[in-house]
Give the backbone structure.
Amino acid sequence: YLSSFCYTPEQTRMLQSLVLKNGMVRTDNKNIDAVWFPKSHKLVVVNNAEVVQETEVVCADQVIKFKLSPYGMDAALL
């Protein structure tokens, strides 16, 4: 954990690099959470908003588009 993390553009870029290097996923929508399960090759995305959300998720060098219903969840096998 980065307990001494201070917000700067440089620190934010470093944090993004750390997350991406550790096999994490990235979405282009702040209302969407995504998690990658490498053993099962499954990507799960969750909409945390009360309205329909669209997003592109980057995972395992692939870009996958999702349209999720309010508080909905979806999954993809990669």
Q: What stands out?
A: The chain has a mean pLDDT of 86.
